Amino acid sequence: MRLILAGLDHTTAPVDIRERLAFSPSxxxxxxxxxxxxxxxREPPLAEAAILxxxxxxxxxGVANGGSTAESLTRFLAEFHGLAEAxxxxxxxFYNGDTVARHLxxxxxxxxxxxxxxxxxxxxxxxxxxxxxxxxxxxxxLHRMFQHALTAGKRTRTETSLGQGAASVSQAGxxxxxxxxxxxxxxxxxxxxxxxxxxxxxxxxLANGADRLMIMNRTQARxxxxxxxxxxxxxxxxxxPQALARADILISSTAAPVPIIYRSHxxxxxxxxxLLRAIGDADTQPEMLLIDLAVPRDIHPEVATLPGVHLCxxxxxxxxxxxxxxxRAESAERAEQITIDEVHAFEAWLRTQEAVPCLTMLREHxxxxxxxxxxxxxxxxxxxxxxQRTVIEGMTRSLVxxxxxxxxxxxxxxxxxxDGQRYAAMVSELFNLEPA
Length: 436
Description:
four-stranded antiparallel beta sheet; six-stranded parallel beta sheet; alpha/beta; single chain
């Protein structure tokens, strides 16, 4: 079995490419099915598959079929998203073997995030795991690998202080606003979206003194719930023009597949601001800071051409990220060691799988002999009761299990130490087993 990974992230691809290759939650099942089942007469590229798609990364994890290659996964991405390979192939990275596990475990621990130690990534890895389970594309190898990845992430958060400080995209976005505008008290902030990113942003805005919050969400009940929890004003999307005119800061993080805020929306809002200032409204600010934390983006890039408007995306959070790296170096080193420990544990389990074919043949061979001898003995016995037959069958089964227990354990232990093939060959020779 060969592990394979194809992906791109914030270090290799800008947001305009990441958003075009992102998988929405409704796409995941179809994509996993395409990856692991025959399609249009072609063999699937993967025997097992999982997809991790977030605002900062798109990654396909798999157990390769015989013909799986980097080219086959590149072709899948192009065909599924309706793109030419030349548009994005230069942004992809490919890993094989144990490097795949190392990358996933470090990712789950927040070591590969835009914001070092980001807390949300572990939940996103768990969602990827659960989506693959639901789609039926998760076999024993990826199942075990994702379990170890989640353990690595959990240990990192409990055994280190890596997640302290601006440890999420939301926190970094609020910190970016504070750095750009200074004091947030008295600023009017519009949050668009009602998910975890917006909730974390609301928490951090309040912690940084912002006390004039508006929350706009497509699902009104969720928007009202968040607004009540954080003392904000709940708005509907129909109120977007008025809300923009009142906002000094906008932080958007929806799951919309296309932009929801265009140049005309913001241009009208800026015109309204100028009118309010002209009639003497001193609280109206002449500028607006828009922070788009969504991928695909919520705010059309043309908005940035408007005077007085400052548009930032997730790729602009680096100035905050760099400031948080220094005090996390020691925690990151400890987190790296945790991921290495979990990789070693996964690799030991993976090696034990070398023993499975041999153990299966050994068990089948023993069961065949047991059944044959049991039937021969039962034919010689006359007038035995069903209870007596059950006792005899149980005795023969117990005897086989006890005889196979030690060689099974020894063979698994040898495989975990990397010596599985040699021991399997000896067992096959001793018991005259046919090669799998």
